[in-house]
Protein backbone atom coordinates (compact mmCIF):
# COMPACT_ATOMS: atom_id res chain seq x y z
CA UNK A 1 0.00 0.00 0.00
CA UNK A 2 1.12 3.55 -0.72
CA UNK A 3 -0.34 6.85 0.36
CA UNK A 4 -1.31 9.23 -2.44
CA UNK A 5 -0.21 12.03 -0.11
CA UNK A 6 3.40 11.22 -0.98
CA UNK A 7 2.87 11.34 -4.74
CA UNK A 8 3.83 14.43 -6.68
CA UNK A 9 1.61 15.47 -9.59
CA UNK A 10 4.08 13.99 -12.05
CA UNK A 11 4.20 10.67 -10.24
CA UNK A 12 0.41 10.66 -9.90
CA UNK A 13 0.04 10.88 -13.65
CA UNK A 14 2.07 7.74 -14.11
CA UNK A 15 1.36 5.83 -10.93
CA UNK A 16 -0.15 2.39 -11.63
CA UNK A 17 -0.77 1.76 -7.94
CA UNK A 18 -3.50 -0.40 -6.49
CA UNK A 19 -4.44 -0.30 -2.87
CA UNK A 20 -5.38 2.04 -0.06
CA UNK A 21 -4.50 5.67 -0.66
CA UNK A 22 -5.30 8.93 1.07
CA UNK A 23 -6.03 12.21 -0.69
CA UNK A 24 -4.53 14.95 1.44
CA UNK A 25 -6.20 18.21 0.48
CA UNK A 26 -6.31 21.23 2.79
CA UNK A 27 -9.32 20.74 5.07
CA UNK A 28 -10.20 17.47 3.35
CA UNK A 29 -8.84 13.96 3.60
CA UNK A 30 -10.59 10.87 2.36
CA UNK A 31 -9.76 7.28 1.60
CA UNK A 32 -9.62 5.69 -1.80
CA UNK A 33 -9.20 1.98 -2.32
CA UNK A 34 -8.84 1.56 -6.06
CA UNK A 35 -6.62 2.00 -9.11
CA UNK A 36 -4.97 5.26 -10.05
CA UNK A 37 -5.22 6.14 -13.71
CA UNK A 38 -1.94 5.91 -15.65
CA UNK A 39 -1.56 8.72 -18.22
CA UNK A 40 1.52 7.12 -19.82
CA UNK A 41 1.53 7.03 -23.63
CA UNK A 42 4.10 6.55 -26.38
CA UNK A 43 4.16 7.68 -29.99
CA UNK A 44 7.62 6.46 -30.97
CA UNK A 45 8.15 2.99 -32.41
CA UNK A 46 10.43 0.93 -30.14
CA UNK A 47 12.71 -2.03 -30.70
CA UNK A 48 11.43 -3.65 -27.50
CA UNK A 49 7.94 -3.15 -26.01
CA UNK A 50 7.65 -1.45 -22.65
CA UNK A 51 6.23 -3.28 -19.65
CA UNK A 52 2.42 -3.38 -19.48
CA UNK A 53 0.62 -0.57 -17.69
CA UNK A 54 -0.92 -1.48 -14.31
CA UNK A 55 1.32 -4.58 -14.38
CA UNK A 56 -1.20 -5.96 -16.85
CA UNK A 57 -4.31 -5.02 -14.87
CA UNK A 58 -6.68 -8.00 -14.94
CA UNK A 59 -3.88 -10.01 -16.61
CA UNK A 60 -1.32 -9.37 -13.86
CA UNK A 61 -1.77 -12.80 -12.24
CA UNK A 62 -1.80 -14.62 -15.57
CA UNK A 63 1.74 -15.58 -16.49
CA UNK A 64 2.44 -16.14 -19.24
CA UNK A 65 -0.39 -14.20 -20.91
CA UNK A 66 -2.44 -16.43 -23.18
CA UNK A 67 -3.03 -14.94 -26.61
CA UNK A 68 -5.48 -16.27 -29.16
CA UNK A 69 -5.94 -15.92 -32.89
CA UNK A 70 -9.44 -15.66 -34.33
CA UNK A 71 -10.91 -15.35 -37.78
CA UNK A 72 -13.04 -12.23 -38.25
CA UNK A 73 -13.71 -12.49 -41.99
CA UNK A 74 -14.67 -15.01 -44.62
CA UNK A 75 -11.26 -14.95 -46.32
CA UNK A 76 -9.72 -17.22 -43.71
CA UNK A 77 -7.38 -14.61 -42.24
CA UNK A 78 -6.65 -14.63 -38.51
CA UNK A 79 -5.91 -11.84 -36.09
CA UNK A 80 -4.50 -11.81 -32.53
CA UNK A 81 -7.03 -11.53 -29.72
CA UNK A 82 -7.42 -11.48 -25.94
CA UNK A 83 -10.20 -13.34 -24.14
CA UNK A 84 -11.82 -11.25 -21.40
CA UNK A 85 -14.14 -12.83 -18.86
CA UNK A 86 -16.95 -11.40 -16.76
CA UNK A 87 -16.90 -7.80 -17.99
CA UNK A 88 -19.32 -5.54 -16.13
CA UNK A 89 -21.81 -3.00 -17.44
CA UNK A 90 -21.04 0.74 -17.14
CA UNK A 91 -17.44 0.10 -16.11
CA UNK A 92 -14.59 2.04 -17.71
CA UNK A 93 -12.14 -0.42 -19.25
CA UNK A 94 -8.75 1.08 -20.12
CA UNK A 95 -6.46 -1.09 -22.18
CA UNK A 96 -3.08 -0.82 -23.86
CA UNK A 97 -0.93 -3.13 -25.91
CA UNK A 98 2.19 -3.07 -28.07
CA UNK A 99 1.76 -4.02 -31.72
CA UNK A 100 4.27 -5.14 -34.35
CA UNK A 101 3.51 -5.86 -38.00
CA UNK A 102 5.14 -7.75 -40.85
CA UNK A 103 4.26 -7.61 -44.53
CA UNK A 104 3.94 -3.83 -44.96
CA UNK A 105 5.88 -0.69 -44.10
CA UNK A 106 2.95 0.57 -42.03
CA UNK A 107 -0.72 -0.11 -41.52
CA UNK A 108 -3.57 0.99 -39.29
CA UNK A 109 -4.27 -1.59 -36.59
CA UNK A 110 -7.73 -1.34 -35.06
CA UNK A 111 -8.83 -2.79 -31.73
CA UNK A 112 -12.41 -4.10 -31.70
CA UNK A 113 -14.51 -5.89 -29.11
CA UNK A 114 -17.05 -8.69 -29.44
CA UNK A 115 -19.26 -9.44 -26.45
CA UNK A 116 -21.23 -12.64 -25.88
CA UNK A 117 -24.56 -10.87 -26.34
CA UNK A 118 -23.76 -10.47 -30.06
CA UNK A 119 -22.84 -6.81 -29.63
CA UNK A 120 -19.74 -5.57 -31.43
CA UNK A 121 -17.77 -2.41 -30.72
CA UNK A 122 -16.07 -1.80 -34.05
CA UNK A 123 -13.34 0.52 -32.82
CA UNK A 124 -12.10 0.96 -29.26
CA UNK A 125 -8.55 2.04 -30.15
CA UNK A 126 -6.12 2.36 -33.06
CA UNK A 127 -2.43 2.65 -33.79
CA UNK A 128 -0.58 3.37 -37.01
CA UNK A 129 1.86 0.48 -36.70
CA UNK A 130 5.21 0.31 -38.46
CA UNK A 131 7.24 -2.65 -39.63
CA UNK A 132 10.22 -3.87 -37.65
CA UNK A 133 9.37 -2.16 -34.34
CA UNK A 134 6.72 -2.06 -31.64
CA UNK A 135 3.95 0.58 -31.64
CA UNK A 136 1.81 1.53 -28.63
CA UNK A 137 -1.97 1.21 -28.88
CA UNK A 138 -4.05 2.74 -26.08
CA UNK A 139 -7.83 2.68 -25.96
CA UNK A 140 -10.88 1.91 -23.90
CA UNK A 141 -14.51 0.85 -23.87
CA UNK A 142 -17.71 0.76 -21.82
CA UNK A 143 -20.19 -2.10 -22.20
CA UNK A 144 -23.92 -1.45 -22.46
CA UNK A 145 -24.62 -4.80 -20.76
CA UNK A 146 -22.57 -7.43 -18.89
CA UNK A 147 -20.62 -10.02 -20.88
CA UNK A 148 -19.37 -13.30 -19.46
CA UNK A 149 -16.92 -13.82 -22.34
CA UNK A 150 -15.64 -11.08 -24.65
CA UNK A 151 -12.98 -10.99 -27.35
CA UNK A 152 -10.69 -7.97 -27.78
CA UNK A 153 -9.02 -8.38 -31.15
CA UNK A 154 -6.47 -6.43 -33.16
CA UNK A 155 -6.84 -6.26 -36.90
CA UNK A 156 -4.77 -4.67 -39.64
CA UNK A 157 -5.98 -4.05 -43.14
CA UNK A 158 -7.80 -6.70 -45.12
CA UNK A 159 -4.47 -7.65 -46.73
CA UNK A 160 -3.90 -11.24 -45.56
CA UNK A 161 -0.14 -10.87 -46.09
CA UNK A 162 0.12 -8.49 -43.10
CA UNK A 163 0.87 -10.27 -39.85
CA UNK A 164 0.06 -8.59 -36.52
CA UNK A 165 1.85 -9.52 -33.29
CA UNK A 166 0.99 -8.20 -29.80
CA UNK A 167 2.83 -7.90 -26.48
CA UNK A 168 2.57 -6.31 -23.01
CA UNK A 169 -1.22 -6.32 -22.89
CA UNK A 170 -3.04 -4.54 -20.10
CA UNK A 171 -6.73 -4.13 -19.25
CA UNK A 172 -7.64 -2.08 -16.18
CA UNK A 173 -11.27 -1.59 -15.07
CA UNK A 174 -12.56 1.46 -13.21
CA UNK A 175 -15.99 1.70 -11.66
CA UNK A 176 -17.90 4.92 -12.28
CA UNK A 177 -17.05 6.09 -8.76
CA UNK A 178 -13.36 5.23 -9.18
CA UNK A 179 -13.31 7.16 -12.46
CA UNK A 180 -14.90 10.20 -10.84
CA UNK A 181 -12.50 10.01 -7.90
CA UNK A 182 -9.51 9.99 -10.27
CA UNK A 183 -11.00 12.95 -12.14
CA UNK A 184 -11.46 14.90 -8.94
CA UNK A 185 -7.90 14.24 -7.83
CA UNK A 186 -6.53 15.73 -11.06
CA UNK A 187 -8.86 18.72 -10.73
CA UNK A 188 -7.60 19.27 -7.20
CA UNK A 189 -3.95 19.07 -8.23
CA UNK A 190 -4.02 20.69 -11.67
CA UNK A 191 -6.82 23.28 -11.46
CA UNK A 192 -6.45 24.34 -7.80
CA UNK A 193 -3.74 25.46 -5.40
CA UNK A 194 -3.29 25.82 -1.66
CA UNK A 195 -2.98 29.36 -0.29
CA UNK A 196 -1.93 30.67 3.11
CA UNK A 197 -2.53 34.33 3.93
CA UNK A 198 -0.39 35.82 6.70
CA UNK A 199 -1.71 38.95 8.41
CA UNK A 200 0.53 41.20 10.53
CA UNK A 201 0.68 44.74 11.85
CA UNK A 202 3.18 47.39 10.80
CA UNK A 203 5.73 45.96 13.25
CA UNK A 204 5.51 42.50 11.73
CA UNK A 205 3.57 40.99 14.63
CA UNK A 206 1.04 38.37 13.54
CA UNK A 207 -2.61 39.26 14.11
CA UNK A 208 -4.86 36.53 15.44
CA UNK A 209 -8.60 36.75 14.77
CA UNK A 210 -8.42 39.09 11.78
CA UNK A 211 -11.50 38.75 9.57
CA UNK A 212 -10.76 37.65 6.01
CA UNK A 213 -13.09 37.63 3.01
CA UNK A 214 -11.93 36.09 -0.26
CA UNK A 215 -13.71 36.26 -3.59
CA UNK A 216 -12.60 34.77 -6.90
CA UNK A 217 -13.10 37.48 -9.51
CA UNK A 218 -11.71 35.68 -12.57
CA UNK A 219 -10.80 32.15 -13.59
CA UNK A 220 -7.52 31.00 -15.07
CA UNK A 221 -8.99 28.13 -17.11
CA UNK A 222 -10.59 29.33 -20.37
CA UNK A 223 -14.13 28.06 -20.64
CA UNK A 224 -16.33 29.61 -23.28
CA UNK A 225 -18.67 29.26 -26.22
CA UNK A 226 -19.17 30.23 -29.81
CA UNK A 227 -21.12 33.42 -30.41
CA UNK A 228 -22.81 34.68 -33.56
CA UNK A 229 -23.88 38.10 -34.81
CA UNK A 230 -27.12 37.49 -32.90
CA UNK A 231 -25.35 38.69 -29.75
CA UNK A 232 -24.98 42.21 -31.18
CA UNK A 233 -27.51 44.63 -29.72
CA UNK A 234 -28.97 41.86 -27.56
CA UNK A 235 -28.16 43.07 -24.05
CA UNK A 236 -29.83 40.14 -22.20
CA UNK A 237 -27.81 37.66 -24.30
CA UNK A 238 -24.63 39.65 -23.71
CA UNK A 239 -25.18 39.73 -19.95
CA UNK A 240 -26.01 36.02 -19.90
CA UNK A 241 -22.78 35.25 -21.77
CA UNK A 242 -20.51 37.49 -19.68
CA UNK A 243 -21.87 36.05 -16.43
CA UNK A 244 -20.69 32.58 -17.47
CA UNK A 245 -17.81 32.60 -19.90
CA UNK A 246 -14.29 34.02 -20.13
CA UNK A 247 -13.60 32.91 -23.71
CA UNK A 248 -15.38 33.22 -27.06
CA UNK A 249 -15.08 32.19 -30.68
CA UNK A 250 -17.01 33.62 -33.62
CA UNK A 251 -19.10 30.86 -35.14
CA UNK A 252 -19.01 31.95 -38.81
CA UNK A 253 -18.32 35.68 -38.95
CA UNK A 254 -14.55 35.47 -39.60
CA UNK A 255 -14.78 32.75 -42.24
CA UNK A 256 -13.76 33.77 -45.73
CA UNK A 257 -17.26 33.38 -47.18
CA UNK A 258 -18.50 35.85 -44.53
CA UNK A 259 -15.81 38.54 -44.84
CA UNK A 260 -15.36 38.49 -48.62
CA UNK A 261 -18.44 36.96 -50.30
CA UNK A 262 -17.47 38.75 -53.53
CA UNK A 263 -13.87 39.10 -54.64
CA UNK A 264 -12.37 42.39 -53.55
CA UNK A 265 -15.34 43.39 -51.39
CA UNK A 266 -13.94 42.78 -47.91
CA UNK A 267 -16.19 43.67 -44.99
CA UNK A 268 -15.18 43.23 -41.36
CA UNK A 269 -18.02 45.28 -39.85
CA UNK A 270 -19.73 42.41 -38.04
CA UNK A 271 -16.59 40.77 -36.58
CA UNK A 272 -15.38 44.23 -35.56
CA UNK A 273 -18.54 44.74 -33.51
CA UNK A 274 -18.31 41.26 -32.02
CA UNK A 275 -14.68 41.83 -31.08
CA UNK A 276 -15.62 45.14 -29.45
CA UNK A 277 -18.10 43.28 -27.23
CA UNK A 278 -15.51 40.62 -26.36
CA UNK A 279 -12.74 43.07 -25.48
CA UNK A 280 -15.05 45.36 -23.50
CA UNK A 281 -15.80 42.41 -21.21
CA UNK A 282 -12.22 41.12 -20.90
CA UNK A 283 -13.03 37.92 -22.73
CA UNK A 284 -10.30 36.16 -24.74
CA UNK A 285 -11.20 35.13 -28.29
CA UNK A 286 -10.08 32.41 -30.68
CA UNK A 287 -9.74 33.23 -34.38
CA UNK A 288 -11.78 30.79 -36.45
CA UNK A 289 -10.80 30.30 -39.21
CA UNK A 290 -8.37 31.55 -41.87
CA UNK A 291 -8.95 28.76 -44.39
CA UNK A 292 -11.39 25.86 -44.55
CA UNK A 293 -10.29 22.92 -46.64
CA UNK A 294 -13.86 21.78 -47.31
CA UNK A 295 -14.70 23.19 -50.80
CA UNK A 296 -18.35 23.88 -50.01
CA UNK A 297 -17.40 26.33 -47.26
CA UNK A 298 -15.23 28.48 -49.49
CA UNK A 299 -16.63 31.49 -51.35
CA UNK A 300 -18.01 30.53 -54.74
CA UNK A 301 -15.57 32.86 -56.48
CA UNK A 302 -12.62 31.17 -54.73
CA UNK A 303 -13.73 27.75 -55.96
CA UNK A 304 -13.49 29.10 -59.52
CA UNK A 305 -9.85 30.23 -59.14
CA UNK A 306 -6.81 28.20 -60.12
CA UNK A 307 -3.03 28.56 -60.18
CA UNK A 308 -1.56 32.06 -59.70
CA UNK A 309 -4.99 33.66 -59.25
CA UNK A 310 -5.82 31.36 -56.33
CA UNK A 311 -2.37 31.85 -54.81
CA UNK A 312 -2.77 35.61 -55.01
CA UNK A 313 -6.21 35.41 -53.40
CA UNK A 314 -5.05 33.29 -50.46
CA UNK A 315 -2.07 35.56 -49.83
CA UNK A 316 -4.38 38.57 -49.78
CA UNK A 317 -6.74 36.74 -47.42
CA UNK A 318 -3.97 36.03 -44.89
CA UNK A 319 -2.49 39.52 -45.02
CA UNK A 320 -5.85 41.26 -44.88
CA UNK A 321 -7.20 39.21 -41.96
CA UNK A 322 -4.01 38.99 -39.92
CA UNK A 323 -3.01 42.63 -40.28
CA UNK A 324 -6.55 43.71 -39.41
CA UNK A 325 -6.66 41.66 -36.22
CA UNK A 326 -3.01 41.42 -35.23
CA UNK A 327 -2.66 40.53 -31.53
CA UNK A 328 -6.45 40.57 -31.02
CA UNK A 329 -7.05 36.81 -31.07
CA UNK A 330 -5.13 34.38 -28.88
CA UNK A 331 -5.42 31.54 -31.44
CA UNK A 332 -6.00 31.05 -35.13
CA UNK A 333 -7.36 27.90 -36.73
CA UNK A 334 -5.22 28.21 -39.83
CA UNK A 335 -6.31 25.36 -42.06
CA UNK A 336 -9.58 23.93 -40.80
CA UNK A 337 -10.27 20.20 -41.18
CA UNK A 338 -7.32 19.55 -43.46
CA UNK A 339 -7.20 15.84 -42.61
CA UNK A 340 -10.64 15.37 -44.15
CA UNK A 341 -10.36 17.77 -47.10
CA UNK A 342 -7.61 19.11 -49.35
CA UNK A 343 -9.10 21.93 -51.41
CA UNK A 344 -5.98 24.10 -51.31
CA UNK A 345 -3.27 21.45 -51.44
CA UNK A 346 -4.99 19.87 -54.42
CA UNK A 347 -4.85 23.18 -56.30
CA UNK A 348 -1.69 24.82 -54.92
CA UNK A 349 0.50 21.81 -54.21
CA UNK A 350 1.47 19.76 -51.13
CA UNK A 351 3.22 22.70 -49.43
CA UNK A 352 0.18 25.00 -49.48
CA UNK A 353 -0.74 24.38 -45.83
CA UNK A 354 2.86 24.84 -44.74
CA UNK A 355 2.85 28.21 -46.51
CA UNK A 356 -0.37 29.19 -44.69
CA UNK A 357 1.13 28.50 -41.27
CA UNK A 358 4.42 30.25 -42.01
CA UNK A 359 2.70 33.32 -43.41
CA UNK A 360 0.21 33.51 -40.56
CA UNK A 361 3.02 33.31 -38.00
CA UNK A 362 4.94 36.09 -39.72
CA UNK A 363 1.81 38.25 -39.74
CA UNK A 364 0.96 37.68 -36.05
CA UNK A 365 3.89 36.06 -34.18
CA UNK A 366 2.12 36.19 -30.79
CA UNK A 367 -0.94 34.19 -31.83
CA UNK A 368 -0.94 30.44 -31.31
CA UNK A 369 -1.64 28.55 -34.52
CA UNK A 370 -3.88 25.47 -34.27
CA UNK A 371 -4.69 22.44 -36.38
CA UNK A 372 -8.46 22.07 -35.87
CA UNK A 373 -10.18 18.75 -36.68
CA UNK A 374 -13.24 16.65 -35.94
CA UNK A 375 -13.41 12.93 -35.11
CA UNK A 376 -9.99 12.85 -33.49
CA UNK A 377 -11.16 12.52 -29.89
CA UNK A 378 -14.85 11.75 -30.48
CA UNK A 379 -14.30 8.32 -32.06
CA UNK A 380 -11.65 6.13 -33.64
CA UNK A 381 -13.79 4.85 -36.51
CA UNK A 382 -12.80 7.72 -38.83
CA UNK A 383 -9.64 6.52 -40.59
CA UNK A 384 -8.91 10.07 -41.82
CA UNK A 385 -8.36 11.38 -38.31
CA UNK A 386 -6.98 8.66 -36.07
CA UNK A 387 -4.83 9.99 -33.25
CA UNK A 388 -1.62 8.88 -34.99
CA UNK A 389 -2.69 10.47 -38.28
CA UNK A 390 -3.20 13.74 -36.45
CA UNK A 391 0.16 13.45 -34.68
CA UNK A 392 1.94 12.64 -37.95
CA UNK A 393 0.45 15.74 -39.60
CA UNK A 394 1.59 17.96 -36.72
CA UNK A 395 5.10 16.55 -36.96
CA UNK A 396 5.12 16.91 -40.74
CA UNK A 397 4.26 20.61 -40.46
CA UNK A 398 6.85 21.12 -37.72
CA UNK A 399 9.54 19.44 -39.84
CA UNK A 400 8.63 21.80 -42.65
CA UNK A 401 9.35 24.76 -40.42
CA UNK A 402 5.81 25.83 -39.52
CA UNK A 403 5.08 27.39 -36.15
CA UNK A 404 2.59 24.87 -34.80
CA UNK A 405 1.41 25.90 -31.35
CA UNK A 406 -1.77 24.04 -30.54
CA UNK A 407 -4.01 21.00 -30.91
CA UNK A 408 -7.63 21.81 -31.76
CA UNK A 409 -10.14 19.02 -31.14
CA UNK A 410 -13.62 19.98 -32.32
CA UNK A 411 -15.35 17.47 -30.02
CA UNK A 412 -18.71 17.07 -31.77
CA UNK A 413 -19.76 13.99 -29.81
CA UNK A 414 -22.45 11.39 -30.13
CA UNK A 415 -22.39 8.94 -27.20
CA UNK A 416 -18.95 9.50 -25.62
CA UNK A 417 -16.54 6.66 -24.95
CA UNK A 418 -14.71 8.23 -22.01
CA UNK A 419 -11.80 5.77 -21.62
CA UNK A 420 -11.11 6.06 -25.37
CA UNK A 421 -11.31 9.86 -25.17
CA UNK A 422 -8.81 9.88 -22.32
CA UNK A 423 -6.46 7.47 -24.09
CA UNK A 424 -6.44 9.69 -27.20
CA UNK A 425 -5.74 12.77 -25.08
CA UNK A 426 -2.87 10.87 -23.43
CA UNK A 427 -1.27 10.22 -26.80
CA UNK A 428 -1.77 13.77 -28.02
CA UNK A 429 -0.22 15.04 -24.78
CA UNK A 430 3.11 13.49 -25.81
CA UNK A 431 3.44 16.36 -28.32
CA UNK A 432 3.65 18.78 -25.37
CA UNK A 433 1.43 21.32 -27.13
CA UNK A 434 -1.64 23.10 -25.72
CA UNK A 435 -4.79 21.02 -26.25
CA UNK A 436 -8.18 22.72 -26.58
CA UNK A 437 -11.61 21.20 -27.03
CA UNK A 438 -12.73 23.81 -29.54
CA UNK A 439 -16.35 23.09 -30.57
CA UNK A 440 -17.94 20.90 -27.91
CA UNK A 441 -21.51 19.75 -28.37
CA UNK A 442 -23.63 16.59 -28.40
CA UNK A 443 -25.52 15.36 -31.48
CA UNK A 444 -29.15 16.43 -31.74
CA UNK A 445 -30.13 12.85 -32.53
CA UNK A 446 -30.46 12.54 -28.74
CA UNK A 447 -33.17 14.16 -26.66
CA UNK A 448 -32.23 17.21 -24.60
CA UNK A 449 -31.93 15.31 -21.32
CA UNK A 450 -29.54 12.79 -22.87
CA UNK A 451 -27.54 15.59 -24.47
CA UNK A 452 -27.07 17.10 -21.02
CA UNK A 453 -25.88 13.79 -19.53
CA UNK A 454 -23.34 13.22 -22.29
CA UNK A 455 -22.23 16.85 -22.21
CA UNK A 456 -21.42 16.61 -18.51
CA UNK A 457 -19.35 13.49 -19.16
CA UNK A 458 -17.33 15.19 -21.91
CA UNK A 459 -16.79 18.41 -19.96
CA UNK A 460 -15.67 16.57 -16.82
CA UNK A 461 -13.29 14.47 -18.89
CA UNK A 462 -11.79 17.52 -20.57
CA UNK A 463 -11.48 19.62 -17.42
CA UNK A 464 -9.88 16.76 -15.49
CA UNK A 465 -7.24 15.90 -18.09
CA UNK A 466 -3.95 17.62 -17.21
CA UNK A 467 -3.09 18.28 -20.88
CA UNK A 468 -6.30 20.16 -21.74
CA UNK A 469 -5.82 23.93 -21.58
CA UNK A 470 -9.25 25.22 -22.61
CA UNK A 471 -12.81 24.23 -23.53
CA UNK A 472 -15.15 25.94 -25.99
CA UNK A 473 -18.80 25.02 -26.52
CA UNK A 474 -20.38 25.22 -29.98
CA UNK A 475 -23.67 26.68 -28.78
CA UNK A 476 -24.20 30.05 -30.49
CA UNK A 477 -27.88 31.01 -30.43
CA UNK A 478 -29.93 31.75 -33.56
CA UNK A 479 -33.54 32.99 -33.37
CA UNK A 480 -34.95 30.65 -36.02
CA UNK A 481 -32.51 27.78 -36.40
CA UNK A 482 -31.65 27.28 -32.73
CA UNK A 483 -28.04 26.10 -32.48
CA UNK A 484 -25.78 23.91 -34.59
CA UNK A 485 -26.54 20.70 -32.65
CA UNK A 486 -27.15 21.65 -29.04
CA UNK A 487 -28.45 24.76 -27.26
CA UNK A 488 -27.85 25.75 -23.66
CA UNK A 489 -30.99 27.89 -23.56
CA UNK A 490 -33.99 28.75 -25.65
CA UNK A 491 -34.02 32.09 -27.48
CA UNK A 492 -35.48 33.72 -24.34
CA UNK A 493 -32.38 32.60 -22.42
CA UNK A 494 -34.29 30.08 -20.32
CA UNK A 495 -32.05 27.15 -19.51
CA UNK A 496 -32.43 23.85 -21.32
CA UNK A 497 -31.01 20.72 -19.64
CA UNK A 498 -27.57 21.31 -21.21
CA UNK A 499 -27.61 24.84 -19.81
CA UNK A 500 -28.36 23.51 -16.34
CA UNK A 501 -25.37 21.18 -16.69
CA UNK A 502 -23.04 24.01 -17.68
CA UNK A 503 -24.24 26.24 -14.85
CA UNK A 504 -23.77 23.42 -12.35
CA UNK A 505 -20.20 22.78 -13.49
CA UNK A 506 -19.34 26.48 -13.55
CA UNK A 507 -20.42 26.72 -9.90
CA UNK A 508 -18.50 23.56 -9.05
CA UNK A 509 -15.34 24.80 -10.75
CA UNK A 510 -15.05 28.13 -8.96
CA UNK A 511 -13.96 29.01 -5.44
CA UNK A 512 -16.72 31.52 -4.87
CA UNK A 513 -16.70 33.73 -1.79
CA UNK A 514 -15.32 32.58 1.52
CA UNK A 515 -14.96 34.05 5.01
CA UNK A 516 -12.83 33.19 8.00
CA UNK A 517 -10.45 34.42 10.68
CA UNK A 518 -6.72 34.12 11.11
CA UNK A 519 -5.49 31.48 13.55
CA UNK A 520 -3.10 31.94 16.48
CA UNK A 521 -0.25 32.24 13.97
CA UNK A 522 -2.03 35.07 12.16
CA UNK A 523 -2.68 32.82 9.17
CA UNK A 524 -5.69 31.75 7.12
CA UNK A 525 -5.53 28.96 4.50
CA UNK A 526 -7.80 27.91 1.67
CA UNK A 527 -7.71 25.72 -1.42
CA UNK A 528 -8.75 27.69 -4.49
CA UNK A 529 -9.20 27.33 -8.21
CA UNK A 530 -6.55 29.10 -10.25
CA UNK A 531 -7.33 32.69 -11.13
CA UNK A 532 -7.59 36.17 -9.63
CA UNK A 533 -8.91 36.89 -6.13
CA UNK A 534 -10.02 39.92 -4.17
CA UNK A 535 -9.08 39.76 -0.49
CA UNK A 536 -10.44 42.00 2.26
CA UNK A 537 -8.90 41.93 5.74
CA UNK A 538 -10.44 43.62 8.78
CA UNK A 539 -8.91 43.91 12.25
CA UNK A 540 -10.47 46.26 14.74
CA UNK A 541 -11.12 49.52 12.92
CA UNK A 542 -8.54 48.77 10.24
CA UNK A 543 -9.42 47.41 6.78
CA UNK A 544 -7.32 46.68 3.71
CA UNK A 545 -8.09 45.28 0.29
CA UNK A 546 -5.67 43.29 -1.84
CA UNK A 547 -5.66 41.21 -4.99
CA UNK A 548 -4.05 37.81 -5.36
CA UNK A 549 -3.13 35.92 -8.52
CA UNK A 550 -3.17 32.15 -8.17
CA UNK A 551 -1.19 30.31 -10.84
CA UNK A 552 -0.37 26.64 -11.15
CA UNK A 553 2.26 25.22 -8.82
CA UNK A 554 2.80 22.25 -6.53
CA UNK A 555 3.80 24.65 -3.75
CA UNK A 556 1.50 26.47 -1.34
CA UNK A 557 1.11 30.13 -2.24
CA UNK A 558 2.09 32.36 0.71
CA UNK A 559 0.66 35.87 0.71
CA UNK A 560 1.51 38.54 3.27
CA UNK A 561 -0.88 41.35 4.18
CA UNK A 562 0.08 44.15 6.56
CA UNK A 563 -2.39 46.32 8.44
Structural write-up:
The chain is of the alpha/beta class. It is built from 13 helices and 26 strands. The two termini are 47 Å apart.
* Biggest beta-sheet profile: 8 strands, parallel, barrel
> Using only CA atoms, what is the Rg?
26 Å
Helix content: 10-25%
Strand content: 25-35%
Widest sheet, order of strands: 13-14-15-16-17-18-20-21
How many beta-strand elements?
A: 26
Question: For the residues shown, what is the average pLDDT?
Answer: 91
Q: What tags apply to this protein structure?
A:
25% helix; 563 residues; five-stranded antiparallel sheet; 34% strand; alpha/beta; eight-stranded parallel β-barrel
Present the secondary structure layout.
Blueprint: H1 9-13, E1 20-25, E2 28-33, E3 68-71, E4 78-87, E5 92-102, E6 106-115, E7 120-130, E8 135-141, E9 147-155, E10 163-174, H2 176-190, E11 192-200, E12 211-219, E13 223-227, H3 235-244, E14 247-250, H4 256-259, H5 269-280, E15 284-292, H6 300-303, H7 307-324, E16 331-336, H8 343-348, H9 352-363, E17 368-373, H10 387-399, E18 406-409, E19 412-413, H11 418-429, E20 435-442, H12 448-463, E21 468-473, H13 497-508, E22 513-517, E23 523-529, E24 531-539, E25 542-550, E26 557-562
Parallel strand pairs: 11-26, 13-14, 13-21, 14-15, 15-16, 16-17, 17-18, 18-20, 19-20, 20-21
Antiparallel strand pairs: 1-2, 3-4, 4-9, 5-8, 5-10, 6-7, 6-9, 11-23, 12-22, 12-24, 24-25
Helix pairs in contact: 7-9, 12-13
